[in-house]
Each structure stands twice: as C-alpha cells, then as structure tokens.
Amino acid sequence: MGKKVLLVGWHPSVVNYAKWPGLTPEKLEKALRADEAKLNGLGYDAAIGFIFSGDTATDQVVAALKDTPYDVVLIGAGVRKDDDHFEVFERLVNAVHEHAPGARIAFNTGPTDSDAAVQRWA
C-alpha cells in the first residue's frame, strides 16, 4: 500500500450551505468520496477524517493521528477558507504539527482537487 493520507474536513451534515451556493450535502459527500477513491486509485492509502464541530474537531483529528501514522494530512478548504472556522483551522494545523510531526500538511482549494494537493507533498 502507498503513503497514508488523512483527508480532514467537515461532515456534510454540519456544513452551512448558505455560504457555498449550489453545494448540497449529497454533492459534497459524492465529491469527497470521489477524491478519496481517486487517491486510492493513484496508489495512496487515503481515508476521510470527518469533523463534526469546532469543539470536537481537534480531539477527533488527534485520535485519528494516534491510531495511524499518516504521511500526509490534508485539511480541507471548507475549514481553511471559512473565516468562521479560522480558529478551528489553526488548532488543526497545530494538532497535526504536534501529533504527526513527520507528516506533510496539505491544503486543497475545494472538494475535487485533493489529489493535486496530496501529490504536491507526498
């Protein structure tokens, strides 16, 4: 199996879709699963690590990092690009830095280009 990749992002059930016109829970889920499948098809061992709230996001990611030694951790654009979640983004970056110091940190621009982000850093 290839390099291990964790894709961190909001679970489709908790996203504020008013901020993302045209996006629905179904479209987001489909795009995220397609990104995961594409990475696996490219030889990576990719897994999605959904987060459910700002209050629990760090603990969820730390638990995933303790379970598996990841080579790349991608923090999704839904976390990074939403000013309402900027502190969550900062906490996640620092959690990855602390709990997976050997992992590369990557960022996508949306739910369809994670493969390019991972390939930049894997």
Structure description:
- The protein has 122 residues and is an alpha/beta fold.
- It has one domain.
- The protein is built from five helices and four strands, in the order βαβαβααβα.
- A four-stranded parallel β-sheet has the order 2-1-3-4, with helices on both faces.
- The longest helix is centred in the N-terminal third of the chain and has 17 residues.
- The protein is globular.
- It starts with a strand and ends with a helix.
Keywords:
single chain; four-stranded parallel sheet; 122 residues; alpha/beta
Mind sketching the topology for me?
Elements: E1 4-10, H1 25-41, E2 45-51, H2 57-67, E3 72-75, H3 77-80, H4 86-99, E4 104-107, H5 114-121
Helix pairs in contact: 2-4
Inertia-based shape: globular
Range of strand content: 15-25%
How much helical structure, as a percent, in the residues?
A: 40-55%
- The oligomeric state is single chain
Total strand segments: 4
Number of structurally distinct domains: 1
- List the secondary-structure elements in sequence, H or E: EHEHEHHEH
Q: Could you give the distance between the termini?
A: 14 Å
Mean pLDDT: 96
Radius of gyration from CA coordinates: 13 Å
Class from secondary-structure proportions: alpha/beta
Strand line-up in the sheet with most strands: 2-1-3-4
Low-confidence stretches: none
